[in-house]
Amino acid sequence: MNLNEALFSLIHTVRNTMIQQLKSLDMNLSPMHLKSLKAVSKIEQCTGQKLADFMGRDKAQVNRLIKELVNQELLIKKDNEKDKRSQLLILAASGEALIEEFNKVENEVFSAMASELEPDQIENFIQITQTFKSNLDAAYGKKN
Description:
mainly alpha
C-alpha cells in the first residue's frame, strides 16, 4: 500500500465510522451541519465570514446553512458590538448538547482507532500529519 492509498483508506474508514455512530444517536443532521456547529463552538467571536473561511466554503452556502441551524434552534445570531455589519454565531443550549454528544462519539471512535498504539506512536503520527499539512500549505498556499 502506498501513502495515498493509506491516507484515503484511513479517511474513508474514519468518516464512515463517524457517520454510522452518529446515526445511532438519531441527530437527523448532515455531517456538514455537525461540522458547522463544531466549528462555531471552536471559533472565538464566530461570524458567518469566519465560519466560511474556516470551512473553506462559499459565504452564500454557509449563510444557508446558518439559516437552517437557526431555524432548528441549534444556533443563535447575536448583534456584533465590535462590527455592526456582522452578527456573532452562538450555540443555543440544544446546539451545545448536540456538540457534547458529537464529541463523545468522536472520542469513542478515535479511542477505538488508537487502542493498540503506544502514546509515542500517536505523538509521532500527529507530528507527521502536521508536517504533511505544513508541506501542502507551503506548496499550494494556506487555505485554512
